[in-house]
Amino acid sequence: MEKDGKISSGEESLRIITEMIDKTKVNIVQSSFHLLFWGWLIFACSVSEILIYRFTHFASPWYVWFFVIPGVFISVIYGFQKGRKASVHTYAEMLYAYTWIGFLFATIVLFIIHSHNIESIGKYILMLAGIPTFIGGFVLRFRPLIYGGISFWMFALIAHFGTPVVAALSIPAAMLTGYLIPGYMLKWKNRDDRI
Amino acid sequence: MTEYKELDPLLHSQLRLAVISILISVEQAEFTYIKEKTGATAGNLSVQITRLKESGYIEVTKRFRDNYPQTMCNITPLGRERFAEYVEALRGYLDPGKQK
Q1: What's chain A's average pLDDT?
Q2: Does B18 contact chain A (CB < 8 Å)?
Q3: Where in chain A are the domains?
Q4: ipTM computed for the complex
């Protein structure tokens, strides 16, 4: 299709505008990567912490959470590289990315404020993680992610009111409902990674 | 008698309207992305982008990515304003009863 002529009618103008806007839909290539990467990383850390606590005499099982630090670098480098290679940046993508960056900074602040009682930080992280997940669901127009965000808040409550075992299990459970299930659904929804 | 607002001649062209419609919905887009979405030839698109740039409707930034030149385009506040006016005028043509 080659366009260079004058527009013959108002309907044609409207058709061009809607057709072009429709073609610039949210690119979700990166979204499923980050959801699956973080879903598996946090799932592995939380399950490892439970197993170390249950089956060993190691005094500080929460040390496994130090694996999150290289995870942040991997995620940031991947996002930066993909962003640099992208031929288009939509407002929705930028909102999505900056909501997650905001979550990252809020989490760092939370770790500093709560450093005296790091063992009980999980429920607060879940509470914070619900926000970008919930907003991300709306930005990507992807309902499972909205439900995933809500599930984070539910598991934060369960972690707060439940027994220590229930609290520990609430984190891997939240990873399943909040990141992994929506992440795989997002990946499989469209193989060409667009919605 | 219904008075119609004049449609901006710069936007009232198939390719230029298509370019502005893409740029209104994204923060920044590469030349090749716009070319792919509009289906235009590189030469024609380049001419129309230059016209939009010279009129201040869009900004064009050239940079290098992995040793290859990359042309990025984004809409300016003026372009956004003109597009809004164009859509408003268009609404008057399509639905004369609602013309202000």
Answers
A1: 85
A2: yes
A3: 27-189
A4: 0.81
